[in-house]
Amino acid sequence: MPDVIRAEKLVYSYSGNDRRSLNGFSLSVRQGEFLALLGHNGSGKSTLARHLNALLEVQQGELTVAFLNAKDPGNVWKIRERTGMVFQNPDNQFVSSVVGEDLAFGPRNFGVPEEEIPGRIRRALAAVDMSGYETHSTHLLSGGQKQRIAIAGVLASEPDILIFDEVTSMLDPEGRRDVLDTVARLHEEGKTVILISHYIEEAVGADRVALIHDGQLLAAGTPREMLTDLDLLRRTGLTPPVPVRLYYDLRSRGLQLPFCPLTCEELEDLLCRLN
Amino acid sequence: MPVELRKVSYTYAPGTPYAAPALKELSLTVGDGEFVGVMGRTGCGKSTLIQLIAGLAAPSDGQIFLDGENINERQFDRNLLRQKVGVVFQFPEIQLFETTVQKDVAFGLKYLDRSREQKEAAVRQALEWMGFDYEAVRNRSPLGFSGGEKRRLAIAGVLAVMPKFLILDEPLAGLDPLGRDAFLELLRKLNQGGMTIVMISHDADALAEYADRIVILKDGMLFKDGPAAQVFSDYKGLEANGTGAGQVSGIAERLRLRGWEIPAGTIRYRRLLDEIAGRWTQ
Q: Is A87 helix (H, G, I), strand (E, B) or coil?
């Protein structure tokens, strides 16, 4: 698969701030890949995400998104149409109090013919498992539903690349599961997915995990390579998932499991095999 | 300085077709020095509860007492309420508005009867608690920080006033793991120093580790109220309610189902580790 996103040595500083939020960040993302991007607060995650949606202009370095050069001002709208972004707070993302109207906002602004819009809304709602909600009021939905409608709002513009910036942090566990299931399904359907998070457990199902620190790519690899490496996680400013922590703490007491589990289920299976 | 709710009800848009009851005859007392975790699904009435305790809305029915005084009586001194009860709302970072960090964090102290030196010391202390170097940040614009940093600045503004009773609505959402742990440790320290803490969170693992008592709301009513070890031991009940009991309780429960003798009340990481290690070496 070709690289749908290619960032090379990106540097970015917000005006009035000497600090470089991105400081030579390089990363490629393959088409159809599910990439989890992890880093602590202020590591540059959101700054990077805003570059991918052409919300921020490239100051230094090279960036292509959806095979388009992001430095060419003529590409800004094309990039925004190809990349959809969902944010943390579901309440801040609605432009209309009616679900259908909210979903129509994106395609209408991209100049999609009016007769195509109802079909797009229907498909977008089906994709997030909320068919039939066209006439519902956005403020009467639960947190997880709101976030799924926000995702549908992005899908209505039919982007190839989806960027989720800490989309689950305001949700209760059930809402979180719903949204993560939706994200996984969209990836299976062929979308390129970039999931930004610091809930390390959410990265377990990704194809690849990239760790960002001080505006630079610290490491990238499979979830198992990245999330079981204590030293690497510590340098990224993250704490290991509970099963990984248990593995190492047991080991320091002289109790060695055959390998380091990544999920609770793996841990429980390993422990039960001992008995 | 206990806070007591007596049969408190609250209905949004009463008398209209949109009338939505958020709390129904809720009775609850939070005593001095407690660390209470409040959980519940989206829409269960958690945030309404905070607004009522903070006096930002008055109950449709029932009374709320602070130190034995009804906070919704005419003669009640609201300034006292504002000084004693600090509230960290969801997304407090949107409340940052001053031109410098120093001014923003000091805003709550503006009309309090304290000397200039006392105010500066309070601002310095609050910023250091939240992990900032006072001298390095005091003259910067609060808007030039990252999302998580802004969150910590906004919380510093609440702590600068040193409320006796601190309520927090989802303060952990959006904090990274180290920031989360550091913040929870700070809350523990403030609590040990005598501050009463009521924290709303979906993070069952954090509440299991830090709160003494857990209150779970459901449809505007009490669903559970008790010591953390007892409430989180009902793993199935909490999962069925959609609140969840956290990863540690989950591992303990599933190991139990598979024949391990993990005692009820194993809700904290250290205890789980000890139990597993103990069973293993037998």
A: coil
Residue B9 within a domain: yes
Smallest CA–CA distance, residue A81 to chain B, in Å, is 26
Mean pLDDT, rounded, of chain B: 92
- Cα distance between residue B184 and residue B171, in whole Å: 10
What is the domain count for chain B?
1
Fold held by A3-240? Rossmann fold (3.40.50)
Task: Please give the Cα distance from A274 to A167 (Å, whole number).
Answer: 38
Any B CB within 8 A of A17 CB: yes
> Using CA atoms, how far apart are residues B232 and A166, in angstroms rounded to an integer?
27
Structure tokens at A30: 């393959």
Is some CB atom of chain A closer than 8 A to the CB atom of B146? yes
For B143-173, b/e burial (b = at least 16 CB within 10 A) is: bebbbbbbbbbbbbbbbbbbbbbbbbbbbbb
Residue of A89, A87, A63 whose CA lies nearest to A76: A63
Q: What percent of chain B has pLDDT over 90?
A: 70
User: pLDDT tens-digit profile of B27-65?
Assistant: 999 999 999 999 998 778 888 999 999 999 999 999 999
- Condensed to tens digits (0 to 9), the pLDDT of residues B171-184 reads 988 788 888 898 99
